[in-house]
Specification:
Helices cover 79% and strands 0% of the residues. It is an all-alpha fold and 222 residues long.
Length: 222
């Protein structure tokens, strides 16, 4: 009985630690998303720094983080599924007359977005999912991670549902195979296709947070 009494406070303290590890970087992310530049950049750097430090402090292996080659062969199914979804998106955009080329001024968006897609999926899966898994178990963590991923894209009406649906698929793939690389590539491909499929009036150049509203105001003024 004494051992059980001692274990409970330790479990409670462990849960509080995990909750804090989720809340602090997510809070910094939200501050960054709702700040103007250059403050946005510094809040973003602070958030990434906290994620990096907490990841190192957790001492999880590369395999646990999804950064090894473990499970990659099975996880590769994610990429062709994503390519099929990309084809469906582009076909839909073509049928309804929405599809458009990415402007020349945004050509670097492709390369930059590929890098940013990795950062996003690392945070969503290797950081947040693993902690939600500790709190709720692996299956519930899939839904919670997808919800958190979607909320990070408020108030964009295209990206919020897209990231929730994509987040469910990506988190489930991570739960099953624990490999980040195919998920990253799938995210990058889908993000670029969403940008090229839907009208800019809907996607607001894939912006979220304060940037969405600032661009919206600018578009209305023209």
């Amino acid at each position: 009985m004494a051992t059980i009494a001692l274990d409970q406070p330790r479990k409670d303290a462990g849960r509080l630690r995990v909750i804090a590890e989720i809340a602090i970087p997510y809070g910094l992310l939200e501050i960054a998303l709702w700040s103007r530049r250059p403050a946005q950049l510094w809040w973003g750097i602070a958030m990434l720094g906290v994620v990096a430090l907490l990841t190192l402090a957790s001492r999880r292996s590369l395999r646990d983080l999804g950064l090894s080659t473990h499970g990659i062969e099975c996880a590769m199914i994610v990429f062709p599924v994503a390519l099929a979804a990309c084809a469906l998106l582009l076909l839909t955009g073509w049928i309804f007359g929405w599809a458009h080329t990415i402007p020349i001024s945004s050509r670097l968006f492709g390369a930059g977005y590929i890098i940013w897609a990795f950062v996003q999926q690392f945070m969503a899966q290797s950081f947040y999912y693993l902690r939600f898994e500790e709190l709720f178990g692996s299956k519930r963590a899939v839904w919670v991670s997808a919800l958190l991923f979607s909320l990070a894209h408020v108030p964009n009406p295209v990206l919020m549902p897209a990231t929730f649906i994509g987040g469910l698929g990506f988190s489930e793939a991570f739960r099953r195979w624990r490999n980040l690389y195919p998920i990253w590539l799938a995210h990058a491909a889908l993000g670029i296709c969403v940008s090229a499929t839907f009208p800019v009036l809907w996607t607001h150049q894939m912006r979220v947070g304060l940037g969405y509203f600032l661009l919206h105001i600018g578009m209305l003024s023209h």
